[in-house]
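Issue 218. Parser rejects a valid record. Input:
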Amino acid sequence: MANTIIVASCLLTFLMVISSNAVRYQPTWQSLDTRPIPPWYDEVKIGIFMHWGVFSVPAFGSEWFWWYWQGSKNKDYVDFVNKNYPSGWTYADFAHAFRAEMFDPDYWADLIAASGAGYYVLTTKHHEGFCNWPTKVSFNWNSMAVGPNRDLVGSLATSIRKRTNVHFGIYHSMFEWFHPQYLKDKANKWTTQDFVKDKTLPELYELINTYKPEFIWSDGDWEAPDTYWNSTHFLAWLYNDSPVKDTIVVNDRWGQGTLCKHGDTYTCQDRFNPGVLQKHKWENAMTIDKRSWGFRRQSHIGDYLTAQQLINTLAETVSCGGNLLVNVGPTADGRILPIFDERMRQMGSWLKVNGEAIYKSKPWTYQNDTLTKDVWYTKQVGPGGQTDVYAITLKWPVGKLVLGAPEPTAATQVTLVGYTGASLQYTYSKPTKMMTIHVPEIPISSLPCEWAWTFKMTKLSN
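Output the parser choked on:
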């Protein structure tokens, strides 16, 4: 018995020593920037983004409706309201029509999974300040108090975790266009922090402790320095002591000057797609509706990316080491338009065939080919160190695919991913460093997918 107690005591002491030696991040960018990004984020590659809020009711122009109407007083927005709403109409009046009566979180979760995405980001609060959860910070401007009369964030978090393996994340705007406290702090040139202490930080702590998201897509930070937002102190708590400290990923929007400099993943700008390999993990947050993040009633079919354009962007982004975050805008009553539904499922069907070139992949020595345009590369490194290289060609190669980057060996094999036929023949010219893959005539009905075809090459010399 005594020996058992001694062993248990030693084990407890050992665990306490290990715990005391665990990394503690200080509230400085120098310290925070040393934290390794949780592996899940780079492995899953693809996320779905949804902008949903009171702006989904007018559904005119963009999710910046309130600002364009009463901030910059854009004539198109002013005329739209004057023409369609009674005199004296306020933005708050739109909230009663944000009812989400058709919202089915289980359907949303299933659709997100069908898209092939590995993470999901929902707007918990945009710059309008309306909160999609029953926050204690905003007593009458949230989805439980007005409009849907339900917890939208919680409903989706529950459905996604119950029905999928998708990582749940949140978007949160740090500022609000017309909040009196924010405007007062701004007038004081950020020497006061009433809005941060009473609104922004309480919301963030509440969201993390209540819903335990694994990704925070911060925004609305750019007018004030990070010291005003107390960003480094919040992130130190997030990384050290929060309930999601081991899995949380954050972006780079934490104050003026932090964009593309600090954070687990860099967004740099909306629709960031550099086309070349980056030194730091990055994300291309982009929209299927080319003109807006939120739902627009005046959109036309030409405003939406085609499936081909979406897949092309996916291949280019992942080849250069980025993640793709694909945005769709739900309607005020909680529907996802058929055009968005279709694009998400088309992406998912492509990934079912070509996923081995995307999920858990790494950038290769070359990102795009040196001879043939619209060919993007990724690689997979196996347990034994063997490397498979994938050439994703955005255009179907008729008869042959000429590549300048790969250098095959006698043991190299080439296959068309998803094609049930035999391995493909190829020739290689060392003097010109030209690899020619001979592509057989394949009936359309036997093609593995409709857009962007992947050629897998094993045992290359480079």
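Fixed in the parser; the record now loads. Confidence is low (pLDDT under 50) at residues 1-10, 12-21.
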